[in-house]
Structures are given as structure tokens and as C-alpha cells.
Amino acid sequence: MTATSVPATGAHVDSEHAQQRVLDTVRQLAGELHPQSLRIPTLGAGDSLERDYGLDSLARVELVVRLERAFDLRLPEGAFAEPDTPADLLRVLRQAQATAGSGPGPGPGHGPAPVAAQTPLGPQATCEPLPETVDTLIGALQWHARTHAARTHVLLYGEHEVAQPVSYGELHARALSVAGGLAAHCGVQPDDRVAIMLPTGEGFLTAFYGTLYAGAVPVPLYPPARLSQLEDHLRRVAGIVANAGATVLVTVPEARSMSALLRPLAPSLHRIVEIATLQATGPAWPAPATRGPGDIAFLQYTSGSTGQPKGVVLTHANLLANLRGMRDACRAEPSDLFVSWLPLYHDMGLIGACLGTMAFGFTLVLTSPFAFLGRPARWLWLLHRHRATITAGPNFAYELCVNKVRDEDIRGLDLSALRLAFNGAEAVSPDTLHRFHERFARYGLRREAMTPVYGLAECSLGLTFPPLARGPLIDVVERDALLARGAALRVADPGVRAVATGDATATSGAAGDIDAHPPIRLVSSGRVLPGHGIRIVSRDGAELPERTQGEIEFRGPSATGGYHGNPQATRQLFHGEWLRTGDLGYLADGELFVTGRSKDIIIRGGHNIHPQELEEAAARVPGVRKGGVAVFPARDASQGTERLIVLAETTETDPAERQRIVTEIGHLAVDLIGLPADEVVLAPPRAVLKTSSGKIRRAACRERFEQGTLGETSRPPWQQMLRLAAAGTLAWVRRALRRVADTVWTAWASLTLVLVAAAGAAAILASRDVGGARAVARAGARTMLRLWGALPRVDGDPTRVRERACIVVPNHSSYLDGLVLSATLPPCLAFVAKQELAPQRVAGTLLRRLGTVFVERADPLRSAEDARAIAACLARGEPVVVFAEGTFREEPGMLPFHMGAFLTAASRRVPVVPVAILGTRRMMPGTPRPPRPASLRVVIGEPIDATGDDWQAALALRARTRAWLLSQTGEPDREV
User: Fold this and answer.
1) By percentage, how much of the chain surpasses pLDDT 90?
2) How confident is the model at residue 211 (pLDDT cuts 50, 70, 90)?
3) Is residue 84 within 8 Å of residue 26, measured between CB atoms?
């Protein structure tokens, strides 16, 4: 008797044969997936489902279905993800039997929806659209709570099909309670960061809005799926918490045991608290915090598919602009209803589903990702039950429904109300679109409901949407022309013309006759949202014409201002006023076709290789785990090019079978891209690293390949805990030593500051002329910085400010800026200082001996007398240093520039030389205080000449100078 034919007795889980039945089921499924493996029959109850049996997340879905049939039990939502061994599965089965009662009963995934559940929302109050005057998320929830507090905002589905309605009024009240708890029990202040690591549910919603109500910034995190991933998960979470500077983590009780491991890795984290504690004991919070549209709403950390996660800064204005743009593109109305299982830590689930329903006013029916992954039919039944008009999911979700939903599980299903099924967040497959529609068309699904979209966290969420009621548009282009020259040439053969209108079957048999290499089929993501812009550029930044592949760039009100705490990544993100997406694509008739990620492109022998297609093909080779292939480049210094590496997961141990896999993948590489793979690496399950949303982390795979650590398997949980504890202890020791070293350094720097300043002041006063005083000041500044070990690195040519008269305009972020400029620039410069310093006995006397020009603080270079004094310096050939911001603040950000320096430069026809000072804000920010260690750098820009001598020329000069300084410093622009 096979495992799938065990009689449904409902009482055999505790029998002595139960473990063997579970083992039989697991072995049978693993054998079907890996028929050549000789190892599977020898595996036992304590072996890992993923590492040893080779069962990935999708295989676990099938495993849960078979176990439920075998034991006549309905398993909980987490059953497919949490257990790591067959023994763990047996414990889950026993727990399920203990709570089963009279049996599983019908529900989504097990038959038609009960008639009594067809209208669980009950009568709904009418809902007006959110007024355009509401400009924050806080204001949106407040407006709904005032206008229709009883209307259901979210209908939450938990275990056993129990639906919990959450009204706008209830969410508002609970958010106020959480805000009070955060302030009273955690000491949260406005602008503090609060990390939220909670599963989909009411707790996440109240924590998110409660954080906003407290004036703090939410940082959504994804919870760990299973213990076998604990170490990698906590390290990534700790990195996010540390980067965000989060002081509080709101999480579930089970995660509190991680606090001892997490805190040493994230120094800013002071409190780990349960959401129930905040809700139950939070004092009455008087009113939500007052925030403006330009304030940060939350930090959305990218999944890290191409590198380390980065915190995208999203303001209230960014989010509402994006939500309103998407509303207009899809014509959303309060009468719509959205069904979602997307996780709330992901931008598609949080912004598109959750915040979207807040902005649009329609109801969100929400279930957990585990509910969908465990029973994909449940998603479909929720669409049926609620007559849903909108839903969304990544491409794999639609593919999962095609492959895992049985006809007997969806008898009576009706999807005719669905008008928008968004497909985004990952590459959209034309085959998936066709198969999903073909499978569910007989259940009322209309082809025009299939809606591929494109977006990214840096644009808040959505960027392009296709025309409504059209359905998917497929473009068929010549493979060689696209890969070799970037030309998206339409295939002209009549046999494939039907594909362009969506008939995927039309290419079978015809495409292969056109060329030795089959054409590439690509899905349109639609047109850019209203008020936004999109363009395709070459690698050198030149805009490309239609049907030419290049890098996708965008701009618009939804665009982020940068990455939190990562100025280098922020600088790389911006290309002038445009933002780089990191994706490749082309435009055709104004619609966007995405072809891949620019960082994933492999350049080998002059050929551009897209890895996705080879990955999909290699995953279909017998013995290779589906979804377990990564294609990436590796450095080849000897050849001056990149090597093509194919990493494939397998459980095969037989040498002949492993060689067969390598050979077949090699043949596929030649067939698809015309080049052989340089190396095919076979590795155990989980060697291919992925993000929380399932995207392949090719850069991380490449790093492990080059380090020679690809074959390492997951350690037991106790070893992971031990390693994390050791890493945390080591991090604590390093921080303690660093604090001691910083204290010693600060004491030394303070002492030398006093001694060198005193000696320098005496030497300046003794100098006979301005030139001598300036030479003394430069020598003293360099001596002091050398004693600190912080002499700045200078990029650029200092002679740019020595050979001719000019106005030097640096950024201003610290009291040390003048010292640094004195140490790095030639001693011929005249500094412009505020008039308030002139009467001071010591400072004023020293500055006058240095030839300083004093000007009005309100507007440097404003008065005619000041202008004449500066003009005299310029006439003598002396460069003049003007801090155009006039002052500085402790918090990062470049303040508005005064116009005086630029008007003088334009009228006198002298260039402006921008100079970026980096590191002084960290060394001595804000009010005068002892310096602290930091590396310093000075970047001297090219001289910028005015195009005329009038006001408009001065404005243009100011704008060019400011843009250059912002690009070099990575500071936020405080002028906007």
C-alpha cells in the first residue's frame, strides 16, 4: 500500500505505524522528484526535508496535500513551511488530530464555499473616495475613522476559515493604544525607527499605524520560516535593524528568545516587545502625531536579490502619489474588493494591497501567505466567495495554481467578477499567463483580467500599467538581434504573428523553423503612470530610441529620495533627475518590455547573456531541483572576460547521473545562447540563495562560488544558535574595544586641539603679513589633522583654486570645515565669515590677520560694501571661499544656498569651484564638542562658468553647483 492510499480512519496518527506512513509519503514524493537518486530510501525521520530529501517550498505543498489525504486531517497553515524533518511532520499531524474535533469539513481547497459564507461582510456603509487634500497616511486613517468608522477596512482570515472584520474605527483606536504603549513602555520618540516583525494579521496593521501615530518610522521585517534558516535570517534582520537604527522591535512571543542573539548584532536595539503588551497596557494616546507629506512614512527594505538589502526612504507624499496614480490607471472605486495573501513585509502586499485599500476606500480580504502556499485553491475560493474584483500576486503564484489545484477542489468556482489580476514583483512569463487563463477560463476568468505590471520599491511600488480590458500583450523578437545588439526586432514569420496578441500556442512548431535559436517572447508591462516619466538609456547615459534595449530609468512624484544610511548606494541610484532601476528593457509604442536585470547580464566574449532563460531550461533537466538553478558570471582575470557559471541543485550522488546532468546543461547553454558554460557546479539543496520573496540572489551565489563555500549545507539549529551567540559576543567585544579606543582618541584630539590652536594663534599674531598668517594657519591645520591621524584624502586638482580668481563654494556640515579647507587648499584663499565674528576679541582678531572678509549673516555678499571687499580680493587674484548655506545643522541635509556668491561670480565673470567636504559631520556635528574618529575626504570639482551676467545665469550657476555637491556628498536635499 502506498502512502497516498492509506485509508482515512482519522485515528491512526498515534499508532506505531504512523511514523513509517509519514516516511513512506515523504520518500515517495522525493523519489518522484529525484527518480535517479539511490540515497532517498536510506533517509530517516530525522533527516532534513529540504537539505536531504530535496523538497523545496512547492514540493512541500504537494506533501501536505498527500499527508492530509493519508491521515484524513486538515493541517494548520504553517505545516508546509515550519517542519524540517519527517519527525516534525508527525508531531504536527498529532497536534492536528488532537484539535480536529469531528473532522476537517469543507472550505477553500476542499470544495465549494459554504452558502452561509457568501456574504460574510454584511451590509457596508457607503464610502466616499479619499479627498485629494489628505496628504499623509495618518490623515487617511483619521479621515476614514471620522467619516465611516463602522465600515470594514480589512477582513482577516485565520485558521478554520474564521473571518475577523477590522473596521476603520477599530484600527484607529487600536493604533492609538499601540502608540501610547510605544511611548510609555519603550520610550519611543518622534522620528525613532520601530522594526515590525509580525505575521500577516491584525497585529501587524495596528503596529504599523500605531508607530505612525507615535510619530515614529515603521520598518517592516519578514519573520523566519523555519529553524533551519535561523542563522541566515537573523544575520540579515540584524543588518537591517542596524542600518535603520531601530530602537524597538515589535514581534511575536516566540521571537523574544532571539533577543539575546539579536541585540549584540544590532547595537541600536534597546527593546523587544510583543504587540499584545503594547495593545493591552498602552496608556490613552491623545491624538496621532502631526506629520507632513515630506516626512518619512516608512523604510521599505529591498529583498536583496542583487546585493545587500537597502532601506528605501518613502515619504507620505511618495506613497500617496503612487497610490493615486495606480488608482487612476486601474480605475479603482470604493465598490471594488481586493483579495490578497501577499505578505505585509513586502511592498506589493503592504503598499499595493493594504495601503491601497486605505487610499481607495475599498475592502481588503486578507489571508496569510502560508494559507495560500499550503492550499493554493484557497486564494481562488476567496475570490469566488467575496465576488472579488481585484487581486495580485507574483508570477509563481499563478503557476502554482495551474500545477497544484485539482479540478475536484474547485467545482462550482466562479471567477467572473474578477476584473484585475495583477502579475508583478518578479519576471512575468508569457507561458504562465496563457496557462492560467486557459486553465480557469471555464470558471469565468476573462483573459482581459490578466494584468502584467512593473514597479519597484524605489518608485514606492507601481510604475507601469497596461491599458484596461485589453489583456496581455506579447512581443516576439529575434533572439540574436536582442542579445548581440540590443535590437528588439519583431519576428516577421506569419507562423508567430498570433503570439503578439496573446495566443501562446501559435509558436509551437513555427518558432523553431525561423532560426537555430528560437525567438524570445516578452510581456508588455504597460505604460508609465500619469505624472511619471520613463526612458531607456545606454550604458553611457544616452537616451535610446524605441525597440532598443537599455537600462530603464524613471522619475516622478513617487520616486524615493534615496537609501537610508547609504549615501554611496544613493549616489549610484541617481542619474541626474532620473533614477536607475537596475533593470533592462525597451519601449515599443510607448509600452515597456522588461528583459532582465542589468547587473545579472553576463558579458562573455562580446556576447550579452541573460541568465533567466537558461535557469528555467536547466531546472527542467531530470535530477535538477525545480527553481534550484542560478546562472551568474565569475571573474576571469587571465582571459579579461567573465566566465559563465551554472549552479544547479541536485540530490544525485551517482557519478554517472551527475555527469549526465552536467552534459545536458552544457548542451542547453549552447542551444539557447550559442556558447558553452565554462563550469556547471552541482550542489546540494539550498545552495542557490534566494530572497524572502523567492528571487535568486545571483550576486550572493557568485560571492560564495568565488569563496569556495557553495557546497556548505545548513547546520543544525543548535549550531546556528551557538554561532550567532559567538558572533554577537565578538561584536560586543569589538564595540567595547572601539569605545575605549574612541575615548582615548577623543582625549588625545582634545588635548592636541588646545595645544596646536594656542601655538598657531600666537604664530598668526606674530606674522608680519596676510600671506605669512595664512601659511601658518595651513601648517597648523595640517599638523593637527596629522596628529589625529585624519589628514583628508584629496580628490581633484588643488591648482584649480590657485591659478586664477574664483569663488570656492563648499558644503557646510561642521565647525571643522574651515580647518579642513585650510589644510587641503592652497594658502592663497580668502574666507568669507559672518559679521558676528568680527567684534570678538580672539576670533575676530585672528580672522582679520588671515584676511577674512566679514559679511552680513542674513545674506552673504548682500551689501555693496561687502561686494566691493570681495571684488577687491578677486581683483588681486585671490580665490574667495563662501559657505553658500550660511550655516549648518546637526542632522544631515544640504540647506538652501544664498544667491550672493553666484550673483558675484556671474557679474564678475569668474568661475565657481565646488568643493565637497566629507566626514566632518561625523567627526564634530552640531554644537562644539570633542571630536570623534572619522575619515575625511575633500573632492575638488571642475570650475563652473556662468553663461551670462544676469539673474538667470546666476540661478543656473547655483543649480549646477548644488547638483554637483549633492551628488558627491550624498546628503538629503533640504531645499525641497
Assistant:
1) 27
2) very high
3) no
Task: Report the alpha-carbon distance of residue 161 to residue 201 in Å, rounded.
Answer: 14
Q: What's the average model confidence in pLDDT over 36-51? A: 76
The radius of gyration computed from the CA coordinates of the chain, to the nearest angstrom, equals: 32
SS3 65: helix
> What are the beta bridge partners of residue 337?
363
pLDDT of 456 higher than 50: yes
Is 213 within 8 Å of 176 (Cβ atoms)?
A: yes
Q: Which residues contact 125 (CB under 8 A, 6 or more apart)?
A: 148, 150, 151
CATH number among 3.40.1130, 1.25.40, 3.30.750, 3.30.70, domain 748-969: 3.40.1130
Number of H helices, E strands in the chain: 29, 35
As a 3-state breakdown, the chain gives helix, strand, coil percent values, each rounded to 5, of 45, 20, 40
- Residue type (1 letter), 225: A
Q: Over the stretch 8-26, which tens digit does the pLDDT of each residue have?
A: 444 456 566 777 888 888 8
* CA–CA distance, 903 with 520 (Å, rounded to integer): 56
List, in order, residues 6 or more apart from 479 with CB less than 8 Å away: 515, 517, 518, 519, 520
Q: Which candidate, 847, 846, 853, 796, places its Cα nearest to that of 826?
A: 796
pLDDT at 380: 95
Instruction: Tell me whether the CATH fold assigned to 604-707 matches the one assigned to 748-969.
Output: no
Q: Where are the domains of the chain?
A: 3-98, 129-465, 474-599, 604-707, 748-969
755-797 pLDDT tens trace:
888 888 888 888 888 888 888 888 988 998 888 888 999 998 8
User: Within a 13 Å sphere around the CA of 782, how many CA atoms are in the beta-carbon half?
Assistant: 13
Q: What architecture does CATH give domain 3-98?
A: Orthogonal Bundle (1.10)
Across the chain, mean pLDDT equals 80
- Classified by CATH at the fold level, domain 129-465 comes out as Rossmann fold (3.40.50)
**What's the CA gap between 574 and 552, in Å, rounded?**
12
Q: Which stretches within 876-974 are classed as H helix?
A: 900-908, 920-923, 951-969
474-599 CATH: 2.30.38.10
pLDDT of res. 549: 93
- Does pLDDT of 325 surpass 90? yes
Strands 246-251 and 217-220: unpaired
Q: Determine phi and psi for 339, rounding to 5 degrees.
A: -110, 130
Give the largest CA-CA distance in the chain.
106
- The distance in angstroms from the start CA to the end CA of the chain is 72
Query: What CATH architecture does domain 604-707 belong to?
Result: 2-Layer Sandwich (3.30)
β-pair type (830-834, 629-636): unpaired
Q: Which residue has the cell 512569463?
A: 429
